[in-house]
Design goal:
The chain is α/β, with parallel strands linked by helices and about 550 residues long. The chain has three domains: about 10-40 and about 70-215 and about 270-410, TIM Barrel; about 215-265, no CATH class; about 415-540, Sandwich (Immunoglobulin-like), CATH 2.60.40.10. The protein contains ten helices and 20 strands. It has helices at about 10-30, 65, 120-125, 150-170, 185-200, 250-255, 270-285, 330-340, 400-410, 475-480; strands at about 45-50, 70, 90, 90-100, 105-110, 130-135, 175, 210-215, 295-300, 305, 315, 360-365, 415-420, 425-430, 435-445, 455-460, 470-475, 495-500, 505-515, 530-540. The strands form five sheets. It has a six-stranded parallel β-sheet with strand order 3-2-1-12-9-8. A five-stranded mixed β-sheet has the order 14-20-19-16-17. α4 (about 150-170) crosses α5 (about 185-200) and α8 runs parallel beside α9. The chain is globular, with a radius of gyration of 27 Å. About 45% of the residues are buried.
Length: about 550
């Protein structure tokens, strides 16, 4: 979430500094010796915790050092240096509604294009089966960095992209573009999207994974009706927007109002919890409680150190209404408060049943490091000079980066293979054959919190006692990719064998995932078994030959 800071300096000066910084970094990258990739101080990854990367540079390489199990870089294909497959990239499709001045047109642009060119979405989908695709980024926000779409247009774009992807890969999972926060205005935006989809297409909007961002920003200045820090959600009623505090009024009085967000509340954990609950309540009201919810962006956006001047950086670039800065210590405390809540919050009335009624399934801190020359650096996980360090060196981490890494390391990890389904298979035999073969399979997921990288066996049986073996398949993550965790009902891998010499009839088969107990630390072995059926029928019959004579 790349936000323009509030105390604007000369745009010309900013762009000069920005371009010079980029030129300097580019020359440094070309001319300086590259650090040798050494053994990193890594730890088991945890798929609940993610990291956001904005630079499209080499900062991705530190994701395993954090122990983060997923990451976003606002692209449909990973940018910069590769990240080990055990950390999962969530591709993001970018949208933009066409407009002339302030007038929005009934058309939009999508990146990548919906085609099979080298850089087209069709090619990316075919090459990356089973991915979670995020459709858009903060479409509710009207600025050059976000997707800027009226809710009615977003509903149409979502329909087009959802069906395009599903038509190419039925195993793909589609997530909505996260709105910048969850306020009454943002919920109204979601309502309009939902209702528009229902009206246009005659069915509820199909979302596999719900997605949100969570920032605490006022939306409107009540004294002049203008945009405040977070802006009014496009296409929504300004009367319900969250207000900035009145200038000159006592901050304690203003900040106590329910419809006001002060800058001092940017790290208010009670408001943080409230926004999560608002989103889950909206999901339940729309029949979506039985869906995962991911938080693909959260952090502190107000800057502490101004890096526009790299020689003499100014500390305490911005104060809140009580004269307090957004220091590293303050941001770190907010991070820990938020993580304590996210890692423990459950509610049987609102939470996701397949994940023990947790309210949020995965969360992603923004950001690894912001653009050179940017002031939005209070939440950086990496130091501005991280490229001076050997890849994976924890000394490249900021105070927030070390706190995030340590928090993740302290959380227990587990793997848990779950047999989701064994489909009913139909086969046939053709005269004069008396038996036929059938391919039987099982779909399974890893609902644990870390990836499976070691091979394991999947065995199929012809009896409930699982003694009459049909065949065994070996699942090798080194060949097909890591079996990522956090896959509650949203994503499956598969294994199959051929059942031979079946006569006409219906047969039941049983299958056990990890039948040789190769995977350690499974939290529940009882969910490794599934049952399916095969029906063999005859195609064509032998008919008697009748001859006629006069």
């Amino acid at each position: 979430m790349y936000k323009p800071h509030l105390q604007q300096r000369s745009k010309i000066i900013f762009m000069i500094v920005f371009m010079v910084s980029l030129l300097f970094l580019g020359l440094w990258s070309l001319l300086s010796p590259k650090p040798t990739l050494q053994a990193q101080e890594t730890q088991p990854i945890n798929c609940r915790y993610g990291a956001n990367n904005l630079t499209a540079m080499s900062s991705n390489q530190w994701i395993p050092t954090l122990g983060a199990g997923w990451w976003i870089d606002f692209s449909w294909e990973p940018q910069g240096l590769a990240v080990p497959s055990a950390s999962e990239h969530y591709p993001q499709i970018r949208l933009r509604q066409n407009r002339v001045g302030d007038t929005f047109l009934p058309t939009y642009v999508v990146t990548p294009a919906l085609d099979f060119s080298e850089d087209g979405l069709g090619t990316a989908v075919i090459n990356n089966p089973g991915h979670i695709w995020i459709v858009g980024n903060e479409p509710d926000v009207d600025n050059l960095a976000q997707d800027s779409m009226m809710p009615q247009m977003y509903a149409q774009a979502y329909y087009d992209i959802y069906h395009y992807i599903k038509g190419l890969d039925a195993t793909a999972q589609i997530a909505n573009g996260g709105l910048s926060m969850i306020t009454p205005g943002r919920l109204q935006y979601l309502d309009i999207v939902w209702d528009t989809y229902q009206t246009l297409y005659g069915q509820p909007m199909p979302v596999d994974v719900w997605n949100m961002h969570l920032y605490i920003l006022s939306e409107i200045r009540p004294w002049d009706g203008g945009y405040s820090d977070g802006k009014i959600a496009l296409g929504t009623d300004p009367a319900i927007a969250i207000k900035a505090p009145y200038a000159g009024q006592p901050p304690a009085t203003e900040c106590a109002k329910a419809d006001v967000y002060c800058r001092a509340e940017h790290d208010d954990i009670d408001i943080f919890m409230q926004q999560v609950q608002y989103m889950r309540q909206w999901m339940k009201n729309h029949g979506q409680q039985n869906k995962p919810l991911i938080l693909s962006e959260f952090s502190q956006l107000y800057p502490f150190v101004d890096y526009d001047d790299p020689i003499n950086p100014t500390e305490c670039f911005l104060m809140d209404e009580f004269g307090q800065c957004f220091t590293a210590a303050r941001v770190t405390q907010y991070m820990q408060n938020a993580l304590n809540y996210l890692s423990t919050a459950t509610d049987p009335a609102l939470g996701y049943p397949q994940d023990s009624n947790r309210l949020v399934q995965q969360w992603n801190w923004f950001s690894m490091v912001t653009f050179p020359g940017s002031t939005g650096s209070s939440s950086n996980l990496l130091k501005q000079n991280y490229t001076d360090f050997v890849y994976g060196d924890p000394d490249a981490l900021t105070q927030m980066g070390n706190a995030y890494r340590n928090y993740i390391a302290a959380q227990p990890t587990s793997v848990n293979l779950v047999a989701n389904s064994a489909p009913h298979v139909a086969g046939h035999l053709v005269y004069p054959a008396t038996t036929a073969d059938a391919t039987i399979s099982v779909n399974f997921s890893n609902t644990g919190t870390t990836s499976i990288t070691d091979p394991f066996e999947v065995t199929f049986y012809a009896d409930a006692a699982m003694t009459d073996e049909i065949g065994t398949a070996v699942v090798d993550p080194e060949v097909q990719g890591a079996i990522n965790g956090c896959s509650w009902g949203r994503k499956s891998d598969a294994a199959s064998v051929v059942w031979t010499d079946l006569a006409v009839g219906t047969y039941t088969y049983w299958v056990k995932i990890d039948s040789n107990n190769d995977i350690d630390d499974e939290t529940n072995e009882n969910d490794n078994i599934a049952t399916g059926q095969v029906t063999i029928f005859r195609l064509g019959n032998r008919l008697p030959i009748i001859s006629f004579t006069k």
